[in-house]
C-alpha cells in the first residue's frame, strides 16, 4: 500500500513540473511579442509634458536582456525537469523491482506452503484406505499404474509422450543434481491434485547396497528439489515373517525362492516361521534344516502355536519374538514370490518413525486358463510376466507390508481377535493411516502372488465370506478371458456353423 502511494506522489510531482515548464514557455512568447498601443498614430507628433520616454534602441536592449534572462530560467527548469524525470524513473524502477521481489517472495511462500501441505516428508492422518493417493512405479521404459479400468493394462508401454517428457525432465534434473550419470534407476511418483506431484528417484551406487535417493516436488509450478541424500542399506537386515498351517508343498516352493533371492543374492535376511498345529510340523522343520545345510543358512526361527490358525496372531507373535533391537519386518505369505530387488525396495521405502511401505503386488491368474491346459504351464520363473492376460495389481490387498518393529509395536499391532481369513491386515493398515506416519502405497514389480485355488470356509461370517468369494473370482482370469469362458457355448456353436459353411462351399466347387 505504501509503495502504491509513493508511486502516485511521484507521478503528481512530474505533472506539476511539466505544467510549470509550459507556463514559462507561454510567458516567454507573450514577452517577445511587439507592443500594442491604442493611441492614434499622430499623437506621437504632439508634444507631451513629463519625463522623456526611452528610445527605440533602449527598449530593444531591455527586451533582449529580458529574453536572455527567460532563456536561462527555461534552461534551468529543463535541467531540473530532466533531473526530476531521472529520479522519477529511478523510483519507478525501484518500485517495480520491489513489487517483483515481493511477487517472487509471495510465489516462494506459496510453493513452500504447497510443499508443507503435501505428503513429502511426513504423513497426513487419513480417514480411510480410500483416501490414500497411491504412487506409480516407473522406469524410463515402463510406467506401472493401478488405475486401469476394464482394459486392465498393468503397465504402460510405450510410455505416453507427455508423461515420457515429464519423467525425462525429472531425470535430467536429478542427474544434474547428482552430477554423475547412472546406469540403473528406479522411481515412484504420485500426484495430489490440489498440491502437486512428488517424485522419488533411486540410483544404484557402485556396490549392491549403496544407493542415492533424490526427492523432487512439482507444486504446479517450477520443479523444487526437496532432498538429496545417500542411503546405505548394507546394515539393514529384514526379518521375513511367514505364518503357516499345513501347505508343506507350497512351503518347499517358497524356500526354493528364498534360497535364491534371500540367501545367495541378498544375504541380509532373517526368516521367522510361525506354524499352527502339530500336523506336518516335522516336514516344515526338515525343509528348514535342509536349506540350512545346502546354503549354510542359520538365520531362521521356527515357532509353534498349538491353536487355530490366525494370520494376524501368527504375524504378531513373530514380530514380538524378535529380541535383536529394532528391525525391518516384512509380513509375507507362503504363496508369495519376490525378487532380490524387492528386498531393496522394502528397505528404501521404510523409515522408523516416519514411513511404512504397503506394496501392491502383481497377482497371477490361473495358469491352466492362461496357457490352455495344465500340461503347457511353464516353470514358475517364466510365468512372472506383468501383462493384462497374466495377472492384475492386487490393489485391494494389504497383507504384504514392510515396517519397522518399533512402529508395529507403537501402533498396537494386529487385532488378534480376528480369526480365519482376511480382515486383520485392513485393520492394521487403517491404524497407520490414522497416525502421522507416511504410508507409501505403490505397485511393486518384484512382488508376485502365485495362483492357488482358494477355498472359502462355510464357518466364516457373512462379511468375511463375501470378501473371500470376491477375491476368489478376481483370481481366476482377466475380464476378456472370463468372457470367453462364459460364452464358450456360443463360440463353439459359431465355429460349428463356420465349419459346415466351408464344407458346403467345398462341395459346390
TrEMBL record:
Annotated region described as Disordered, given as residue ranges: 39-59
Alphabetical UniProt keywords: Coiled coil, Glycoprotein, Golgi apparatus, Membrane, Metal-binding, Signal-anchor, Transferase, Transmembrane, Transmembrane helix
Principal EC category: transferase
Coiled coil: 60-94
Pfam families hit by this protein: CHGN
Entry's localization field: Golgi apparatus, Golgi stack membrane
Superkingdom of origin organism: Eukaryota
PANTHER family hit by this protein: CHONDROITIN SULFATE N-ACETYLGALACTOSAMINYLTRANSFERASE 1, CHONDROITIN SYNTHASE
Name this polypeptide is given: Hexosyltransferase
GO cellular component: Golgi cisterna membrane
Family from the record: Belongs to the chondroitin N-acetylgalactosaminyltransferase family.
EC numbers on record: 2.4.1.-
Reaction catalysis annotation: 3-O-(beta-D-GlcA-(1->3)-beta-D-Gal-(1->3)-beta-D-Gal-(1->4)-beta-D-Xyl)-L-seryl-[protein] + UDP-N-acetyl-alpha-D-galactosamine = 3-O-(beta-D-GalNAc-(1->4)-beta-D-GlcA-(1->3)-beta-D-Gal-(1->3)-beta-D-Gal-(1->4)-beta-D-Xyl)-L-seryl-[protein] + UDP + H(+)
Membrane topology type: Single-pass type II membrane protein
GO BP field: chondroitin sulfate proteoglycan biosynthetic process
InterPro entries membership: Chond_GalNAc, CS_glycosyltransferase, Nucleotide-diphossugar_trans
MF annotations from Gene Ontology: glucuronosyl-N-acetylgalactosaminyl-proteoglycan 4-beta-N-acetylgalactosaminyltransferase activity; glucuronylgalactosylproteoglycan 4-beta-N-acetylgalactosaminyltransferase activity; metal ion binding
Amino acid at each position: 500500500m505504501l509503495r502504491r502511494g509513493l508511486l502516485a506522489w511521484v507521478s503528481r510531482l512530474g505533472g506539476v513540473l511539466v505544467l510549470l515548464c509550459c507556463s514559462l514557455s507561454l510567458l516567454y512568447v507573450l514577452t517577445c511579442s511587439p507592443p500594442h498601443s491604442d493611441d492614434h498614430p499622430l499623437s506621437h507628433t504632439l508634444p507631451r509634458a513629463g519625463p522623456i520616454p526611452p528610445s527605440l534602441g533602449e527598449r530593444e536592449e531591455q527586451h533582449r536582456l529580458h529574453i536572455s534572462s527567460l532563456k536561462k530560467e527555461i534552461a534551468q527548469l529543463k535541467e531540473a525537469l530532466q533531473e526530476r524525470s531521472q529520479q522519477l524513473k529511478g523510483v519507478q524502477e525501484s518500485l517495480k523491482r520491489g513489487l517483483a521481489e515481493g511477487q517472487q517472495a509471495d510465489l516462494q511462500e506459496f510453493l513452500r506452503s504447497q510443499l508443507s501441505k503435501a505428503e513429502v516428508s511426513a504423513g497426513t492422518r487419513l480417514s480411510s484406505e480410500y483416501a490414500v493417493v497411491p504412487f506409480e512405479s516407473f522406469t524410463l521404459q515402463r510406467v506401472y499404474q493401478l488405475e486401469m479400468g476394464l482394459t486392465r493394462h498393468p503397465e504402460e508401454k510405450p510410455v505416453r509422450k507427455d508423461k515420457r517428457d515429464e519423467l525425462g525432465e525429472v531425470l535430467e534434473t536429478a542427474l544434474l543434481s547428482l552430477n554423475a550419470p547412472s546406469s540403473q534407476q528406479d522411481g515412484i511418483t504420485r500426484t495430489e491434485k490440489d498440491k502437486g506431484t512428488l517424485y522419488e528417484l533411486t540410483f544404484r551406487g557402485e556396490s549392491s547396497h549403496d544407493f542415492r535417493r533424490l526427492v523432487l516436488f512439482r507444486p504446479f509450478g517450477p520443479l523444487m528439489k526437496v532432498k538429496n541424500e545417500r542411503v546405505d542399506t548394507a546394515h539393514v537386515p529384514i526379518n521375513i515373517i511367514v505364518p503357516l498351517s499345513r501347505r508343506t508343498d507350497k512351503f518347499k516352493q517358497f524356500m526354493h525362492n528364498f534360497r535364491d533371492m534371500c540367501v545367495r543374492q541378498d544375504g541380509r535376511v532373517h526368516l521367522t516361521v510361525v506354524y499352527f498345529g502339530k500336523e506336518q510340523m516335522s516336514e516344515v522343520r526338515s525343509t528348514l534344516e535342509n536349506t540350512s545345510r545346502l546354503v549354510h543358512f542359520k538365520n531362521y526361527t521356527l515357532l509353534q502355536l498349538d491353536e487355530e490358525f490366525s494370520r494376524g496372531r501368527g504375524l504378531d507373535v513373530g514380530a514380538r519374538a524378535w529380541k535383536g533391537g529394532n528391525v525391518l519386518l516384512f509380513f509375507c505369505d507362503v504363496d508369495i514370490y519376490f525378487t532380490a530387488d524387492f528386498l531393496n525396495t522394502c528397505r528404501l521405502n521404510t523409515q522408523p518413525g516416519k514411513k511404512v511401505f504397503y506394496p501392491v503386488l502383481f497377482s497371477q491368474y490361473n495358469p491352466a486358463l492362461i496357457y490352455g491346459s495344465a500340461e503347457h504351464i511353464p516353470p514358475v520363473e517364466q510365468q512372472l510376466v506383468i501383462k493384462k492376460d497374466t495377472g492384475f495389481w492386487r490393489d485391494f490387498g494389504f497383507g504384504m507390508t514392510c515396517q519397522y518393529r518399533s512402529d508395529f509395536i507403537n501402533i498396537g499391532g494386529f487385532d488378534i481377535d480376528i480369526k480365519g481369513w482376511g480382515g486383520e491386515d485392513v485393520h492394521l493398515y487403517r491404524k497407520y493411516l490414522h497416525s502421522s506416519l507416511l504410508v507409501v502405497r505403490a505397485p511393486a514389480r518384484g512382488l508376485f502372488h502365485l495362483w492357488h485355488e482358494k477355498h472359502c470356509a462355510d464357518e466364516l461370517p457373512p462379511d468375511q465370506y463375501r470378501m473371500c468369494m470376491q477375491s476368489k473370482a478376481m483370481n481366476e482370469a482377466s475380464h476378456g478371458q472370463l468372457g470367453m469362458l462364459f460364452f464358450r457355448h456360443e463360440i463353439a456353436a459359431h465355429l460349428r456353423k463356420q465349419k459346415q459353411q466351408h464344407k458346403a462351399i467345398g462341395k459346390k466347387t
